[in-house]
Every structure is written in structure tokens, then in C-alpha cells.
Amino acid sequence: MSAVAGLNPPQAREPGLDPQPGLDRRRIAAWYAAFAGYAALLAVFSRHADQSWGIWASGGYLLAAITAVSYRRSRGRDAALLIGAAGALAGPLTWLAIRAPATADVQVVARAATLLLRHGSPYLGPGQLSAWRSYDPYLPAMTVFGLFRAAGFPGVIGDPRLWIAVTCVALLTVAFGLAAPHQGRRRAGRRHQALRRAVFAVTTPVLALPLAVGITDPPVLALFCVALACLGAGPAARGAVPRAAGLRGLVSPHRIRPSRPAGAALAIGIACAMKITAWPAVPVIAVMIAARDGRRAAWRFVAASAVTAGTAIAAAAPAALAKPSVFLHNIVLYPLGLTRHLTPAASPLPGHLLAATGTAGRWAATCLLLVAGLAVAAWILLRRPAGDRAVAWRLAAGLCVMVVLAPATRWGYFAYPLGLLGWLGLTGRDRAVAGRLPAPGRLTWLAPAVARLTPAMAGLLAAPGTNGTATALARSGAMRARGAGERCRALRAGEERWPRRSGRIVIRRQRDAGRSGHQAAPVIQIGKAGPT
Fold first, then answer.
1. C-beta separation of 129 from 105 below 8 A
2. In three state form, how does the secondary structure of 438-455 look?
3. What is the pLDDT of residues 477-530, one digit of tens each?
4. What is the pLDDT of residues 138-173, one digit of tens each?
5. Closest CA relative to residue 16, chosen from 75, 74, 79, 81
6. Which of 132, 228, 350, 429 could make an SS bond with 20 (beta carbons 3.0 to 4.6 A apart)?
């Protein structure tokens, strides 16, 4: 019976192993051991804030890996996550906020919040840009994280890094909760798993290092994850498999998770109001929505994202809207290296090396970045993404190209593609749940058999131990069985039934039973109704 329904009975698993892949006890231990090696290298070969983080994180990762290996129960896994969070994020963040001078990113955010409260704009005018620290390359919504310092809160409470980290944990928890499969999992269990994944994500070096030193990319990446979770699953989760098999109305599996384009537009709009690096996500997601839900839905997404970004920018910088030159110098020219004072983002990547040759090289690097962007856009249009995971892959590839070829760039920007790849790894269970649905080629021959199921067989399918797909199949089979019983009784009474809709079972009596006097067998057809 399970072969008919395409089910797998629940199997016992080792204590401490997560039912979703990517976060069980063994993988946590392996990842933390690798992270410990990376942090140790950073502690030896780097300086300043990065070195402090490496010293803290190497010990925290190593202790977390030992804890995950030593304890077999789920408490050991949770303890390892907490130790990793303390050693890689909470400890170094507190130490750097109290004992070390604020990094340039923290200073810029705090100063922008002070200017916003005093003058209604987080930016200095072109005549006041006397050094590279005077520029603010962030969009106005990023200023929110510095309001606590501008309001006079001292120490760690007023440090923008604390609120950036709290925001990232909250956003990632929401994202993993939305991305969790809704079949066979209680709401409380989904919340716990989402929190575990969020804690593990912020303890990885991709997020823990920038959060500890005050880099502003993690909130944008977290909003990307929220948008991808809101986009919902692909066509397989929406019933395309049963329809392709000709069983429309017979099998009605629940979606792995519902699609929320409005939530995706809200998340992307806020991200676009924080940093310009979030803007490439809008066309990529719009192309996917146009391919899946139609052009009108795509235009609605673009409009909602633009309205959200515009509202956030206007609310965070009301006075700056009257001075477009302020946005031009701080947000456009400065990141491209076209101002008098160059940005310190100067990692030895191809775009920066080309721009360092002079004015001609700087313009050549800018043109090369534009051409590469057009090539990525053409690739996305020709091979349109079909779901949220395809969007993540294409967005990671596009951002990687942008980081490599940008005139002013740094290694830390690779957190975007690496973070998106990590999101794909931690949410890979969605496709596994979609794989539980029977393949189209295996469903076609089941139509006559399921249509003739008796109520007793339907109840057997709905016995305890089956999942949601079996229940849906059993209910549908029971209704079809009752319909078939009515048709058989009508057949005995000598009636004929010709249903109008296609896909119904057509039962009729052959009136010319023959001259032998034997009763003719009923004719059962599966397909379009009509006289034969």
C-alpha cells in the first residue's frame, strides 16, 4: 500500500540528529572544527579587530566541536550552538565594543544617526567631505542601527553592532521558520528548528566576523533570506505533479510552504533602502515571479519593492531628498572610486587592480563591471529561474561577479554569495519533501485503481503512521469510491450517466446485450465523457 501512495514509514534516527539535513550533531562538530581552523589562521596572520575575533572564535569553535561530539542527545547539540554563539559572536562583539576603538563602519553609522537627529539628513554636503571617513556609502535605512548611540546610550547597549546582530538573528529566525516544510511538523517544533538554524548561521565566520567588527552586510543578507523564504516552493509543491499525471482533483498535496510575494517585496524593499548591493535582487526575483505567476504578479512585486524602499528612504532621510547631489557623491561616486578621497575598500581583486592603474583603468573597470552586469542579466533572461532556489543561485553568481570586478571592493563582500549558498544548504529539506510525491510516470497507471477504491481500502490508507499525502489520497479515494458505488447502483437500475466534465468515470450499460440472453458487463471509461 505504501508503494501505491508513494510513502515512506517513519524511521528511527540517532538521538541528536536533526530530521532535516545540514544541522545534525555530527555536521555541527565537523563545521565547527573547520571554523576553528579558519579562526586560528586569522588570529595568526591578521591584525586589529580581525585578530581579536580570531582569538576568541578559535577557542569557541573548538569547544563547541568537542561538546557536539561528546554529547549524543539534542541537549549536546544545543549546548554546542550556544558555546559557538558565545565564542564567535557574543564574546568578541562585547570585547571589541568595550576595549577596542570603533571600526570605520560603526563610526559612519553612529555619525549618520547623529546627523539625522540634528539636521534631518544622515549625509554631509559635497563641501563638507574632507576625508574618506566623511562619506556615508549606505542608504538612509541603515541609520536606524545608530539611533541608540545618537540617543546617548553608553557602552555595548548603544553600539550599532549589538542591534545589527540582534536584527540578524531575528530576521534569520523568521526566514528559517517560513522556509520550513509545513507538513508533519508542529508549529512549536518549526520555531525551535528555525531558531537553531538562525543561531548556527550567525555563528559561522561568514556572519560572525562581520557582526563582531561592525560590517553592515549581514542585515541585507538576512533580508535576502527572508525574501527567498517568502517566495515559496517551486511548481512541484503546488500540485503540478498530480496534474501532469492526469489526477487533478484526485491527489491534493499541501504546498511545502505558501508563497508570500508581498512579504518578499517588503523584505527586498527594506534591503534596498539599506545598501545599494541589494538592488540586483529586484530584477532577479521579478523574472522568477514572471515565469511562475505571470507578468502582472512580477510588476506588482517590483512596484511594492519600490514603494517600500522609497518610503523607508523618505522616512530615514527627509531632508536629503531635496539634495540629489548628496546621494550622488556618497552612494554612487564614492563606492566607484570616482571622488577625490578614495575608499579604503581595496582588496587585490581584478576590478581594483585595474582601477589602480590610473584614471583610464578606473573607467575601464567601471565599463567592464557594466558589461558583466549586462551579461549576467541576459543569462538570467535566457535561463529564467523557476523557483526560490534558482533565484538564490543566480543572485549568488551575479553578486560574485560584481565583487570581483568592482573598482572598489573587499574580500568581505563575498559574504553575500557564501551566505546564499549556506542558505541553500540549510533549507535543502524542502526539495526532499517535494520528492516524496510520486513521479508522474508512476501515477498515471494508478488512476483506475484509485478510482475503484472502496471506503474500507480508503480507511486503510488513512491508518495512523501515514503522512499528509496519504491522508489526502485516502480522502479523495473515499469520495471517488462512494461516487463509483452510486454509479454501480445506477447501472443495475439500467440508467446511464454522462458526466460533462472531463476526467470523470463514465459508466453505462450496453443495451444490446446480445441475443444469447446473458447480461452484458458494464463499460468503464477513464477520460473525456461522451458517447462512443
1. no
2. CCHHHHCCHHHHHHCCCH
3. 445 445 545 544 444 444 444 444 444 444 344 444 444 444 444 444 444 444
4. 999 999 999 999 998 988 999 999 999 999 999 999
5. 74
6. 429
**What are the φ and ψ backbone dihedral angles of 471, each rounded to 5 degrees?**
-65, -45
How far apart, in whole angstroms, are the C-alpha atoms of residue 234 and residue 516? 58
What confidence tens digit (pLDDT) does each residue in 53-79 have? Answer: 999 999 999 999 999 988 877 678 889
Show the 3-state SS of 257-290.
Answer: CCCCHHHHHHHHHHHHCCCHHHCCHHHHHHHHHH
Where residue 184 falls (left for φ over 0; alpha for ψ -120 to 50; beta otherwise) is left
**229-238, 249-258, 299-308, 400-409: least confidently modelled range:** 249-258
State the distance between the two ends of the chain, measured CA to CA, in whole angstroms. Answer: 34
d(CA 486, CA 360): 83
Helix (H, G, I), strand (E, B) or coil at 306: helix
∠ CA 387-390-394, nearest 5°, is: 140
Rg, Å, the chain Cα set: 29
How many whole angstroms separate alpha carbon 498 and alpha carbon 504? 9
Lookup result for grid cell 533580508: 223
What pLDDT does 257 receive?
Answer: 58
How many C-beta atoms lie closer than 10 Å to residue 357's C-beta? 11
Count of C-beta atoms within a 10 Å radius of residue 219 = 24
Q: Classify 499 in phi/psi space as left (phi over 0), alpha (psi -120 to 50) or beta.
A: beta
